[in-house]
Amino acid sequence: MDGRTWEVSLNVPIITKKSLAWTSRLNWDQNRSYITKLDVPEYYDGVIRFRVGERYGNVYGKKFVQSCSQLPGEFQSRCGTGKEWQANDEGFIVWVGEGNSYKDGLTKNLYQSMTGGCIVNGVVSGSIQGIKNCVAAGGKVNTPWGQRQVHWGMLTTVRDSNGAEAQTFLGNSMPLWKVGWSHNLQFKRVNAYVLIDKTFGNRVYNEDRQWSFGDFMTSDAQQDGKSVETAKPIGYYWRAAAPEAATGIGGTYSVLGPNTISFEDGSYTKLRELSLTYNIGGIKRIPGNWAVTAIGRNLYTWTKYKGWDPDIGGGGGQVQSGALYSTQASSYPQMRNFTLTLSSKF
Length: 346
Hints:
By secondary structure, this protein is mainly β.
């Protein structure tokens, strides 16, 4: 392993007077670890890839196609507005067929439609899987990567030449960088302290949300407020398509494991701590210099993460580290807590 940590700290005394002092401190840090040598062949444990040159903790999983450029070359020209493959209202590339729009699913009853992955002697086959097998059968590849069945309006996953879902780099749970910004203000007998944390570029596996897709228990599947053009059938949120799942048609749940949707952006800004101290001083007939302090921790989080809290340390997988593979899986989020203390110095 080759690890590099950079840290920069800046402490600024903004006001320094006898009865008023205000100090601000800014910390920035970044950590990177790379695998430089393996005494075993490179391998993939189902989540993290271990190979020389790989950043430690890189997570691989299923990637849903979100741009025409992610499709194989011959299908990129068949993708775009007014073509067979289009981006739906959620930004995912889906098959709609010639002459249709992604908005036509319910009005034309197209969600019942599907197409096969190989055309042999003018007949579309839904049983031949992969580019190599289609060519060997004397056929013409009809779906990206030769996936044997594609259902109308369903998500498309990046695949290999055999038509199997490829394990694609999704990100890392360690932040690209972190920032801590604190302020300490003292006015006569009163002292106030605030600390704000910021992480950028980290990702969290939201297993709770993904599991809810499979059980139809997430608000994403709720269609209230949607138009007939953008409403989705319940199957849109369910299982992977063949051959990964025998009963699925290609939904957001896919199969349990990190994918484009479930391995979410976990960047956040958090009000980590806020405290207020009042120095009482001496109390009659009671020795000591007394002070009372009120402290609040984990008070508020600003984030686009859809789970409970991106600041989570659960999971770990084979690496046994919630920092390298952060997972929200039926675990409690960070607790917001308040503390009141009475202290004295003798």
